Known about the structure:
The longest helix is centred in the N-terminal third of the chain and has 39 residues, at about 1-40. The chain has helices spanning about 1-40, 55-60, 70-75, 80-95, 110-115, 140, 150-155, 180-190, 200-205, 220-225, 260, 265-275, 315-320, 335, 340-345, 360-370, 375-400, 405-430, 435-455, 500-505, 530-535, 565-570, 615, 640-645, and strands at about 125-130, 135, 165-170, 170, 210-215, 220, 240, 290, 345-350, 355-360, 490, 495, 555-560, 565. By secondary structure, it is mostly helical. It has a two-stranded antiparallel ribbon with strand order 1-2. A two-stranded antiparallel sheet has the order 3-4. A two-stranded antiparallel ribbon has the order 5-6. The chain has 5 domains: about 15-110, Di-heme elbow motif domain (Multiheme cytochrome fold), CATH 1.10.3820; about 120-290, no CATH class; about 305-340 and about 375-475, no CATH class; about 545-590, no CATH class; about 600-673, no CATH class. The protein has 24 helices and 14 strands. Helix content is about 35%, strand content about 5%. The chain starts with a helix and ends in a 28-residue tail after the last helix. Strand 1 (about 125-130) and strand 2 form a beta hairpin. The relative contact order is 0.04. This is NapC/NirT cytochrome c N-terminal domain-containing protein.
Amino acid sequence: MQRLTGFLDRFSRPIKITIQVAILAVILLAVTTVGFIEYSAQPSFCTNCHIMQPYYDSWKTSSHNDVKCISCHYAPGIKAEAMGKLQAANQVVKYVTGAYGTKPWAEIEDAACLRSGCHTERELEGQVNYEGIRFDHSQHLGELRRGKRLRCTSCHSQIVQGSESLVFQGVSIGAAHLRVTAVTCYLCHFKDRPPGQPLAGCVGCHKSPPRFRSPAGFVVDHPQYVENLVSCVGCHESVTSGTGEAGQRRCFNCHNEPERIDQFENTTFVHRVHIAEHNVECTQCHTPILHRVVSLAETFELDCAACHQRVHDEQRQMYSGMGGHGTENMPSSMFLARVSCQSCHAIPTQIPGHEEVMKAGEATCMSCHGIRYANILPAWQREIERKVEQVDQVVSSARATLGSAPVAGRATADSLLRLAAENVDFVQRGKGAHNIAYADQLLRTSLELVRDAVQTGQLPYDIPAVALGPPVGRNVCLQCHVGISDQAGRFAGVSFDHAPHVQGAGLECTACHTPLDQHGETTLTGTASCTACHHRSAEADCSACHEGPAGAPARPVATAMADFPHTPHREAGLDCSLCHSSPDMSVSADRCQMCHTLHHQPDNSCLSCHRGGVRDKHPPMAHNGCTICHQDRAAWIENWTREVCLVCHADMVEHNAPANCVLCHRDIPALGE
C-alpha cells in the first residue's frame, strides 16, 4: 500500500497530464472527425478528385443543384450512411494511393428519392406532363412493365462519364444529372414492336394532339384525324430509328467470367440483376432507339425502289415541288405535313402484270378530311387536264413554226420551247394533282417560255389567249376550289358569275367569303351587300347581272302587294332608275303613284293590276273591305261596288254584269266592319 501510495505521489502529475492530453486528443479527434465528415458531405469536396469534376459540373447545372450529393447517394438511415462513409473513405485511400479506377460507379436507391423533404409517394400519383407527353408514375413503378421492375433511376439518368458527348445518328443522347432519359422510354415502348404499334399505342402518350398552324402556314387538325380514326403512321411513318439490340460483346465491358456470360440468353435474370438489383443504364447494353418526327425529303425512297428504279421520279419531284424549269421550288402542303405516298395511295387495285398496287382516290381524301372533301380530287384532275391540253397545243403549234423562223434566233427559240415542252410533260407524267399549285405555275411558266421564244426567235406565230384563271399558288382557296373562277350560279335569287369578280375585278375570296379558319361561310347578307360595287350610280348596266330583256326579270316578281310584272313597264320605255333608287336600288309603292294617279278609285277594279295572286293572299273574311288593312291606300273607298266585290269573287265577273252586287245582296256589313 505504501509502495502504491509512493508511486502515485511520484507519478501523479505525469498521469494527470497524460489523461488530460488523452482527453484533449479524443476531443480534437472527435471534432476533426465531425468536421471532416461535415466537410466531406459538401459537394465541393468531391472535386478534390479530378475524376469527379464532370459529375460535379453536371450536378451544378442540374435541377438538383440545391441538394447535397449524400442526400441521393446515401439511402436514409444510420446504417446506410455509415456504409456510405466507409465506402467514401475507401475511395479516398484508393485515390491517395493511386489505386483508383477512372470510371467510378454509384447506385441511387429509390428510398433516397422518396426520403422526407424530397419526393413523396403522393407526388407520384396521377398524370404529369413532360414536354407534351402525359406520364403516370404509378403505371411504371407499381408493377412489372414488360416483365421488368423499374427504379427511379431507370428513367431519371445517373450521368455516365462521357455520355454528355454520346451521339447516335447525329442526335445527342447524353443525359444530365437525374434528368429524364427519353431513350429508356423509347427502348421499352418501341423495341420489337410492329411499325405504328408502340407499347400503349400512339395516343397512350400523345393523348390529345392539338390543332395548330405549321411553320409552312397550313392548319393541321389533329383532333379531327383522331375522331376519324386516321392512323398516325399515315403522316408520321418513319418516326423511329435504331433497333435497341443488345449484343453479347457488350457484356465484356463489365464481365469476363464465363459463368456470367453464359446467362446472356436468360433475359429475365439479366434484367432483374441489372435493373431491379443494380441500376445499370439501358444504353450500357442496348443500342439506342430514337423517336422523332422527320421531314420528308425530295430523295425519300418508296418500298418498291429495290426493283423499280426511278419509276416514280416525276411524281416524287412534283410532290416535293422541284424539278421544273423557270419556277421556284414549291413543295405541296401535304409534303410539308410529312404525308407519305401510302397515306393517299391506300386503295388496293389489281392491274395486269402486278400482284396488287395501291391506288389513290377521293375516298382516301375523305378518310382523313371528311365528306366535305368529296369531288376535290376529280376537280383537280379535270382542271389540270384542261390546262395541260391548252398549253400543250400552244407549245406544239409554236414548235411547228420553228422551220419558218430566221436562222439566227432559231437555236435559242428551240431551247426555250424544249424547256416549255418538258414542263408540260412533267405535269402530265408527274400528275399535277400531286401538287396543284406547282403544276399550275409550271404551265404558266411554259407560256412565258413560248412568249420568249416567239420574241427571241421571231417566230411567225400569234400566241392565242389561254384561260388559266388566277394563279393557284397565290390563293390558298383555289388549291381546293380549283376552277371556281369560271363557275356561275345564283346568289339571293340573282344570277352570279365568279369570272368577272375573280378574273375581271381581281377580288380576293375573302371579299365575299369568310377566311380559312371559318371555312364555308359567306359574309354577304344579301344583294344589298353588293351595292358597294354594283349600284354606285343609276346609270349602271342592269343587264350585266339581272336576266331578262334589258336586265329586267322575265317573270313577275312577288311582292307584299301583288305580283309585279316588269315586262309591260319595260315595253313602255320606262328606265330602271325611275323606280329603283341608289344606293340599295330598293323600290317603294309610292313610286307607283307617280304613274297610277287614279289608283284605288271606286270605279277601278283592283284586278286590273293585282292579278293572279291577290285572291290567294286575301281569303274572304266576312266581306271585309280593303280599308281594314289598306287604310292609307284606300281610305276613299266608302261604298260596296261591283269592282270591290270582284277582288275576292273574281269567278263571278260575268255574273249579272254590270249590275251592282248590293242590288241583290243586301245583308252585307258596312265597309270596314
